[in-house]
Amino acid sequence: MYVCSCFGITEQQVRDHADKGACTPRQIASVSKAGTDCGSCVRRIQSLLGRGACPRRELADQGEQDVLGAEVPHIRQAPRVVQVQAA
Questions:
Q1: Distance between CA atoms of 26 and 34, rounded to whole angstroms?
Q2: Going along the chain, which residue ranges are E strands?
Q3: Which of 23, 47, 72, 73 has a 20 to 30 Å separation from 59 between CA atoms?
Q4: Helix or strand or coil: residue 11?
């Protein structure tokens, strides 16, 4: 069954991309374009992905390359802002 009729992306293709590590609608869009035109399929993609574990996040924690072929950036913490008062 088609999930994205704009680009002809099926449920199975979304599942295949998820098996390769895509775990958000944005990541599915980056590998398939699904959800980037009219956007009506984004909720269906989200429901197919569910809320399970994300292999990409696990790989990032281990410092490995992601299964979609890109370097997984480590999660950076925002720099602390220190206010200095004039003396």
A1: 9
A2: 2-4, 9-10
A3: 47
A4: helix
